[in-house]
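[step 3/7] inverse_fold.run input=structure_tokens len=245
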């Protein structure tokens, strides 16, 4: 597995590389099933090779595990509607958890120093994300707000959103994801300070257990001047709040 944080001279590219050999499937309810099955077959074949090179359980093992879960739930994994489900789930999980195969240095390794001496706060608001809680593997969905004070240069705005997506596409707790995002940006940019605020709703609380819908959880992480200066924290919270009003 790649390291969680790190600084490297990665070249910026126009598109995120993702996991080698994966493709996004296009499926429609009006399909006769042939094109869909062919697409799944192609992806699964590539996953077999990728799993072998990564030293992780194979796609076949993942599919067998899904078949076991289907049977454990009380259904027949061999019936028409479920026979291809294990392959679809394996392909979907590869996309949903692609963040394990990425490193923040891919996105933060290049900065721009021709910024006219700009040294004030840079704030990105309302970065949407979806992730999965590591306790029940159910989704939690929300928004991330990120601010930082540049020291020598700035990073492309989309790269901060890619860092959020990378950590969201792992099994997570909201608290850990908040800390990881702030730590990666702080280390990668060597900024004067980073502020991260995450707001999310958790399906593990809405769909099961206490079954309370509409409950929002907020977490924050501050480094540098945001951590040492209460006025900077208030300014950040005010700017984020102004966006919501």
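[step 3/7] decode complete -> sequence:
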């Amino acid at each position: 597995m790649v390291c969680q944080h790190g600084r490297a001279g990665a070249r910026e590219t126009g598109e995120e590389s993702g996991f080698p050999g994966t493709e996004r499937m296009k499926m429609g309810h009006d399909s006769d099933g042939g094109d869909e099955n062919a697409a799944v077959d192609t992806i699964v074949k590539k996953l077999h090779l990728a799993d072998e090179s990564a030293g992780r359980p194979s796609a076949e093992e993942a599919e067998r595990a899904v078949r076991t879960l289907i049977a454990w739930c009380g259904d027949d994994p061999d019936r028409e509607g479920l026979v291809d489900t294990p392959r679809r789930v394996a392909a979907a999980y590869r996309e949903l958890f692609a963040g394990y195969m990425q490193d923040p240095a891919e996105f933060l390794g290049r900065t721009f120093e021709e910024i006219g001496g700009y040294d004030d706060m840079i704030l990105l608001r309302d970065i949407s994300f979806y992730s999965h809680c590591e306790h029940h593997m159910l989704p939690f969905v929300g928004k991330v707000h990120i601010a930082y004070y540049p020291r020598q240069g700035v990073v492309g705005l989309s790269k901060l959103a890619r860092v959020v997506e990378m950590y969201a596409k792992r099994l997570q707790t909201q608290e850990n994801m908040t800390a990881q995002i702030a730590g990666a940006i702080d280390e990668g940019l060597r900024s004067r300070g980073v502020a991260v605020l995450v707001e999310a709703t958790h399906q593990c609380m809405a769909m099961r257990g206490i079954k309370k819908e509409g409950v929002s959880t907020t977490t924050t992480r501050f480094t540098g001047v945001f951590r040492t200066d209460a006025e900077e924290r208030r300014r950040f919270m005010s700017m984020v709040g102004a966006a919501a009003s």
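[step 4/7] annotate
Residues 34-54 form the longest helix (21 residues).
The chain has two domains: 34-100, 111-244.
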